């Protein structure tokens, strides 16, 4: 569950100059409301999560072992993890154990059988309002490079489907990046291309804020979907090979993207609106259009997005605690860390029932039935949400999804698709579109459009 954002600041001429700019901007806020030794390959470390994935039936041990074997041999891709914000804001080294504090560290990523992780380059709306959105993105990108250089035996920077498959063969985790919040490009297609050069392979067009060219799911609509410049952003993303991410956007923006895009799109962390009527989720008619586009919807794990029972209980708790939270905000207005700790303590003292894992699997199932099993994948939102379903406490628990899908009768071939091959297919097609469109000239044939400047 992330904080909203908004847009500002003129186009940048060069990300290289920005990266050398001095004077640190204020640290961004985490999105939540809320040992580094060399590790063995996945095949040696993949373990049972330890909790029965369904409260209704004991675990079938034979099926569980089959699930673990399948997990070990599959390409497993998670397209949205927010640990990067903590890696920057808290100077957290992902190689250090962090169970009980964060959802993600290298040991648990290995334990969960993960092949590829997209680190979310999340740029809060405050940077759109006060300036520095591109600088924030650059700082976060540097932390991914830093992690890969510190842990070369476990992490491999990846920029393509080929890189992901190579990392799998080497027993490493492929580290990729996706920008969350299109305001990070500061309305410049030149900046968009520079982010691609740095390794960004998808961009979420908006966060919960409408920006200068695209309407968000959770803010006032001002463009009736995509503006003309927004459509040019999509075309340029297709041309470079950067995947268009439609999580967080309005339904009309989503529809406009599907009208414009010549490459498959993704929803990096969204779920099914038919099961949970939240604007962050995707309605069935658009699920079908995404399937026709060849795209993939990656299921978000946050209980408030997948369970209306949980969402309603969470809102009721918010109402109960409203006055006490306001008092804490007044008391600790000058101490952000203490405020965060006190708010968490208050929330923890008034727990609500966890959403069962079966509810999460229902979203995989629904999208597979409506869009087709070729169009669903994993977009966890680990470390970007304050709670998770029972039995899905952190990244090490990913094999529970494999087990539950097998238990529901999915074939091993179809489970492999959900775990990562669907994403790999869409990514590979986006790469093919780009090779045809740019003829090896990332900038040479690129648009120079930016908002606030004359079209060149």
Walk me through what this model shows:
- There is one protein chain.
- This protein has about 450 residues and is of the alpha/beta class.
- It has one domain (about 15-50, about 60-305, about 355-440): Metal-dependent hydrolases (TIM Barrel), CATH 3.20.20.
- The chain is about 45% helix and about 10% strand.
- It contains 18 helices and nine strands.
- The chain has helices at about 15-20, 40-45, 60-75, 85-90, 105-110, 125-130, 135-150, 160-170, 190-200, 230-240, 250-260, 285-295, 305, 310-330, 335-350, 355-370, 400-405, 410-440, and strands at about 75-80, 115-120, 155, 175-180, 200-205, 245, 265, 295-300, 375-380.
- Strands 1, 2, 3, 4, 5 and 6 form a six-stranded parallel sheet that branches.
- Strand 3 (about 155), helix 8 (about 160-170) and strand 4 (about 175-180) form a beta-alpha-beta unit.
- The longest helix has 27 residues, at about 410-440.
- It starts with 14 loop residues before the first helix and ends in an 18-residue tail after the last helix.
- About 55% of the residues are buried.
Q: Give helix and strand order, one letter per element, not per position.
A: HHHEHHEHHEHEHEHEHEHEHHHHEHH
Fraction of residues in helices?
Answer: 40-55%
Number of domains: 1
CATH architecture, by name, is Alpha-Beta Barrel
Low-pLDDT segments: 1-55
Portion in strands? 5-15%
DSSP summary, beta strand count: 9
Question: Tell me about the biggest sheet?
Answer: 6 strands, parallel
Radius of gyration based on Cα positions = 21 Å
CATH topology: TIM Barrel
> Which structural class matches the secondary elements?
alpha/beta
Tertiary shape:
globular
CATH H-level name... which superfamily? Answer: Metal-dependent hydrolases
If you average the pLDDT, what whole number results? 89
CATH class: Alpha Beta
Number of helices in the DSSP assignment: 18
Q: Report how far the terminal alpha carbons are from each other.
A: 39 Å
């Amino acid at each position: 569950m992330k904080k909203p954002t908004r847009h500002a600041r003129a186009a940048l001429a060069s990300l290289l100059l920005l990266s050398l700019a001095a004077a640190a901007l204020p640290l961004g806020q985490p999105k939540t409301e809320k040992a580094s030794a060399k590790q063995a390959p996945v095949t040696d470390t993949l373990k049972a999560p330890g909790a029965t994935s369904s409260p209704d039936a004991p675990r079938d041990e034979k099926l569980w072992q089959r699930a673990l074997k399948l997990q070990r041999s599959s390409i497993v891709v998670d397209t949205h993890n927010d640990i990067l914000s903590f890696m920057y804001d808290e100077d957290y080294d992902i190689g250090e154990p962090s169970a009980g504090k964060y959802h993600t560290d290298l040991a648990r990523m290995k334990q969960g059988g993960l092949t590829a992780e997209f680190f979310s380059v999340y740029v809060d709306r405050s940077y759109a309002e006060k300036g520095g959105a591109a600088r924030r993105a650059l700082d976060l990108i540097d932390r991914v490079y830093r992690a890969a250089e510190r842990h070369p035996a476990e992490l491999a920077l990846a920029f393509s489907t080929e890189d992901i498959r190579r990392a799998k063969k080497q027993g490493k985790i492929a580290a990729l990046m996706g920008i969350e919040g299109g305001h990070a490009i500061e309305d410049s297609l030149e900046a968009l291309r520079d982010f691609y050069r740095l390794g960004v392979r998808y961009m979420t067009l908006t966060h919960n804020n409408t920006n200068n060219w695209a309407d968000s799911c959770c803010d006032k609509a001002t463009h009736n979907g995509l503006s003309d410049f927004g459509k040019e952003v999509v075309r340029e993303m297709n041309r470079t090979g950067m995947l268009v991410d439609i999580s967080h956007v309005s339904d009309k923006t989503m529809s406009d993207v599907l009208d414009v895009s010549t490459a498959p799109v993704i929803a990096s962390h969204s779920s099914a609106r038919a099961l949970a009527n939240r604007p962050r989720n995707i309605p069935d008619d658009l699920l079908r259009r995404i399937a026709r586009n060849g795209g993939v919807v990656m299921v978000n794990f946050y209980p408030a997005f997948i369970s209306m029972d949980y969402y309603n209980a969470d809102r009721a708790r918010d109402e109960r605690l409203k006055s006490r939270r306001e008092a804490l905000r007044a008391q600790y207005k000058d101490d952000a860390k203490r405020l965060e700790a006190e708010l968490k303590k208050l929330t923890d003292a008034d727990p609500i029932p966890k959403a069962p894992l079966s509810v999460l699997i229902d979203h995989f199932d629904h999208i597979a039935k409506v869009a087709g099993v070729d169009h669903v994948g994993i977009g966890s939102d680990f470390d970007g949400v304050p709670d998770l379903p029972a039995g899905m406490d952190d990244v090490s628990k990913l094999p529970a999804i494999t087990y539950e899908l097998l238990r529901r009768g999915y074939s091993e071939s179809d489970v492999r698709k959900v775990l990562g091959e669907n994403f790999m297919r869409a990514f590979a097609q986006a790469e093919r579109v780009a090779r045809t469109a740019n003829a090896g000239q990332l900038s040479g044939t690129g648009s120079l459009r930016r908002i606030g400047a004359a079209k060149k």
